[in-house]
Amino acid sequence: MLKKERHDFIMRQINLHNRVLTSDLVQLLNVSEDTIRRDLQELVDLGKLYKVHGGALSKSYHSSFDDSTVYARDSKIIIAKKATSLIKDGMVVLTGGGTTVLEFVKQLPENLEATFFTISPLVAVELAKYNNIEVILIGGSFSKNSQVSYGGSVINQLSEIKVDLCLMGTSALHPDAGMTDTDWEINQLKKAMLAASKKSAVLCISEKLEITLRLKVCPIESISYLVTELNNDDLLLQPYLSKNNVNIL
Amino acid sequence: MLKKERHDFIMRQINLHNRVLTSDLVQLLNVSEDTIRRDLQELVDLGKLYKVHGGALSKSYHSSFDDSTVYARDSKIIIAKKATSLIKDGMVVLTGGGTTVLEFVKQLPENLEATFFTISPLVAVELAKYNNIEVILIGGSFSKNSQVSYGGSVINQLSEIKVDLCLMGTSALHPDAGMTDTDWEINQLKKAMLAASKKSAVLCISEKLEITLRLKVCPIESISYLVTELNNDDLLLQPYLSKNNVNIL
DNA sequence: CGTGTTTTTGCGGTTTTTTGCAATTATGTA
DNA sequence: TACATAATTGCAAAAAACCGCAAAAACACG
């Protein structure tokens, strides 16, 4: 069996069961432990899975249960602070969920007067702490993974509003492929959010740039503002993005 | 089972119940006590939980326990535990907000299969921790005081559903005046919730009994179940309530 | 086709990690 | 205080990971 075939086999197992045991793979693929370990290490280097003593776990599995510690918190705070400059008194804003957006809300100026629509209950609770912000929570089926409202009724409600700016995080952004995602419902949701907004801002830590996932949300030129933790000079994509009218923050 | 998986399992239990017993984990994970103790110690080193004699507690629980902002927490826990007996597999339930309802959600049995509608984002987030509970968050204008969705759109959405049981806290309950409130919008909301439900349960600490506020929500006989922290014998209203077909828990 | 190079793979030996056991100590409770 | 339960410690066996090496296979190129 070719190495590539083994890698594909391992990734199938990972996607199916979220985990693999070294010992199982030795039996199934009929190669030595060392070979399996080398395979796993290579897949780790490609960022495709997570290695632990005794086997490996899928990346999504790992991140979804690790909710007590926010990953890359420092970067997210930098992004959040930058993003607040987009918000002016009197604006009507729509936000998604996620730790970066939540951090953004915490950084807003105390006396901001604005109206916020949001699909995230945690964001709503945080926004409610501001006296002069009107909060409208958009409800629907509640996603256990992403902790936001989703589904048909959310899409319907979004189709009835038009806001100045929509603000969301993303799992992947690529100069050619644009914004992409893995979950179909979240994908639909983001499309509807963009359609409901005059302008859009995407909050994205740099390591998620230049990654492409299965489902396309929108092309790169649909994004009005990209907010990362990098300086403009350090952002290699900068010229390409500017060409597509994406403002960099 | 891999060590990482055990750690994730433990953290899930902690997030769900705010505590774990060493002895329970030994049975559930089928490893020796020593292994569990080492696991717990490692999670302590990672700052993810708090170790005590006999098991471990969640960090948030520990801090919220010290946090005296939750008034009469002990009574509310008693009420919450009693109220869980009203919920059976397969039920469709509607809940309001408030600390007592939130505590109720935390006390639900781990594998409950049910559908919950709620107007409270915090309740939704807490419910989402249960694998077999479907959560539908009802959105609308968000109340800074009561931390729930309210207003016309909520009333509309409530008019479209019919659930088995509606569960809410209250600020006042009186044998003659029934359930009363001070806030007009919350008043309307509660009426709509009751109208959307076949049966209703009111969670109420005893000190709010025999109080009357300005706005009437419903007469006493509209309440199917009253849950307080008292024993039946200590509840002076008991005969009167039974006469009006209110079940006491 | 032949030869030198790179890649892949398995093996032996060593080190690290994990786990359970037993003996001891600590803790909480009647 | 005494007793039961839980925690700690040291230890040893088993499992897994690591390291260097060499055989085998695949590849490149004249």
Description:
Two copies of one chain form a homodimer. Chain A has 249 residues and is α/β, with parallel strands linked by helices. Helix content of chain A is 39%, strand content 24%. In chain A, the strands form four sheets. In chain A, strands 6-5-4-9-12-14-15 form a seven-stranded parallel β-sheet, with helices on both faces. The first copy, chain A, has a three-stranded antiparallel β-sheet with strand order 1-3-2. Chain A folds into two domains: 3-65, Arc Repressor Mutant, subunit A (Orthogonal Bundle), CATH 1.10.10; 73-248, Translation initiation factor eif-2b, domain 2 (Rossmann fold, 3-Layer(aba) Sandwich). In chain A, α8 (152-159) packs parallel to α9 (184-195). Mean pLDDT of chain A is 89; it is low at 64-68. The first copy, chain A, is elongated and about 65 Å long. Chain A binds chain B through residues 19, 21, 52-55, 57, 62, 65-69, 121-122, 124-125, 127-129, 131, 134-144, 147, 149, 157, and chain B through 2-5, 8, 11-12, 15, 46-48, 59, 121-122, 124-125, 127-129, 131, 134-144, 147, 149, 157. β7 of chain A pairs antiparallel with β6 of chain B, so a sheet runs across the interface. Chain A binds a DNA duplex (30 and 30 nucleotides) through residues 3, 22-23, 31-35, 37-38, 53-54.
